[in-house]
Design a protein that fits this description.
alpha+beta, Arc Repressor Mutant, subunit A, three-stranded antiparallel beta sheet, two-stranded parallel sheet
Length: about 120
């Protein structure tokens, strides 16, 4: 029998950009741990983020100008870096969203096609 941990999926790097930007766009500034927990919550714990995946992605996204960060205090009054989406990040989010929709509809076609119909066409 599978346990809950076995059912969690790793997040692909390209998808991570979309998820982080969408989370920040919807929820406002968050620290890294908060971003990871929100993504896990929204996915109903199907997606799992670890620090080794998230923080390099946040650094890259900040270097690209898609997010900005500043130091603040967490809920537990600890020093934390809070990330927020920028206007360039909103443009990137729109592009990533469109790319994801196009790719997922393409994959849907592959999952749903009838092999018999291809044999008839090729004939």
């Amino acid at each position: 029998m599978k346990n809950r941990r076995d059912e969690k999926a790793d997040v692909l790097q390209g998808t991570l950009i979309l998820l982080v930007l969408r989370t920040l766009d919807a929820l406002g500034p968050l620290h890294g741990y908060g971003i990871a927990r929100r993504i896990e919550q929204i996915s109903k714990d199907v997606l799992q983020l670890n620090q080794g995946t998230l923080y390099p992605a946040l650094l890259r996204m900040e270097q690209e100008g898609w997010i900005a960060s500043k130091w603040g205090a967490s809920d537990k009054n600890r020093r934390a870096r809070f990330y927020s989406i920028t206007s360039a990040g909103r443009k990137r989010l729109a592009k990533e969203t469109e790319d994801w929709k196009r790719m997922s509809s393409t994959i849907e076609r592959f999952l749903g096609f009838d092999p018999e119909s291809l044999a008839e066409e090729g004939g």
